[in-house]
Amino acid sequence: MEAAQDLQSRELRERGARVLVGGVNSPVRAFSAVPGDAPLIAGGTGSRVIDADGREFTDYILGYGAHLLGHAPACVLDALRGELDASWSFGCTTASEIVLAEQIVASIPGVDMVRFVNSGTEATMTALRLARGITNRNLIVKCDGGYHGHSDALLAQAGSGVATLALPGARGVTPNSVRDTLVVPYNDPDAMTAILSHHGEHIAAVIIEPVAGNIGCIPPDPGYLQHLRSLTKEYGALLIADEVMTGYRAAYGSAALALGGSFDLICLGKVIGAGFPVGAVAGRASLMEQLAPLGPVYQAGTMSGHRFAMAGGSAVLGTLSATEPYEALDAMTSHLVTEGAALLEAKGIPAYGTKRGGMCTLFLGIGEAHSYEDVKKADTTLFGSYHAHMFQHGILLPPSQFEAVFVSRAHTMEDIDRFLSILAEWKPPSMRS
User: Is 270 designated active site?
Assistant: First the structure.
């Protein structure tokens, strides 16, 4: 007979399936690409989460990168307590919006102004509208597998859940919606050169994840970001850095700048809201002032700049500096991917580890990964077995080979060593008697 606690998540899944589409509010949460049932999380502290059945996991999802300090850090809790008694949504500007914007401007060179929105999707959508309004051009360029939110124009050959579900795009996205979106391989400077030389006078912007995070963690090849900057300047297109995931996680402020690149507009999210719904577009004043109410490019949002996201994000950014915690995060991710790949190779599995700051990926079944085409060759069946083993032993990983793994300041090297010891115990199907 099953214990009562074992019925808790089962009952919740059954109830959720009746009232939520697929039982979830974002497709990746269904865990459909890996064996077993999706967890139902009840709470979290630091590097740990607890599910509805009381099982504890070391969390490497971290709100898909939002929790740089781990779950429920004291500084964020204190900031929220200071907001609760004063109500939280007014339809008017509050001081917390100004404070967080000042922190972003002070920490990212080349940023003079910020516009807060409610999600990464809104941020990229706004950045593209702004680029088109400034340049009076229609075309945009993105990379194969690059995920920039679920607005129609950007669901052309996207990564993230679209990659996990092996969809070429998304039904309901019309040909007209993506006709102005041009797609080239990531880390292929020649392809980018060719498309700008052919369409340059019609291209409003190139949008790029400086470190791709939705086909796994794929850093740019040396010189790639600098090549994009040179090309976009030559053809008068704007360069948009989509750092919804990487901003303040892969590096302090902008990963593009840390990697020697630059941008005209930058999209932020996740970390800057401490896990609350948030997004932002930022850039130099001459561009940002084209947004309403100063300029002709319209954008609005009732809940934009919500006090909880602003206060929480401000508390997080207030703990950061240009070196710490990134040295510690880099050391942990380096240890995970280096030793993890060696353990996999010892089991006879080709493996490739990638990392940047507090994000990383272990690719199974391939020896290198620089583009979406490389990543698509990874062994997703083998990944499912690996994921199930780690889950059964208290390690919560993103449920797809195509999602980055995240580490927080609350994690320790002991957490990483435990991860590795559990990985060492995994017996792939080929090794089972």
Answer: yes
Q: Which of 270, 330, 379, 386 is catalytic?
A: 270
Overall pTM surpassing 0.85 (yes/no): yes
**Residue 318: how many other CB atoms lie within 10 Å:** 12
pLDDT at 6: 52
Decide which of 150 and 43 is more confident: 43
User: Looking at the structure, do residues 145 and 287 belong to the same domain, yes or no?
Assistant: yes
pLDDT at position 159 is 44
**How far is Cα 28 from Cα 137, in angstroms, rounded to an integer?**
34
How many whole angstroms separate alpha carbon 207 and alpha carbon 229?
A: 11
Residue 147 is a catalytic residue: yes
Range of the domain at 111: 74-317
Tell me: do 62 and 79 sit in the same domain: no
| Whether residues 231 and 347 fall in one domain | no
Q: Which of 51, 144, 242, 415 is the catalytic position?
A: 242
Which is catalytic among the residues 60, 64, 147, 248? 147
Helix axes 307-317, 95-107, angle to 10 degrees: 40
From residue 255, alpha-carbon distances to 59, 225, 260, 307, 359 in Å are: 23, 11, 9, 26, 12
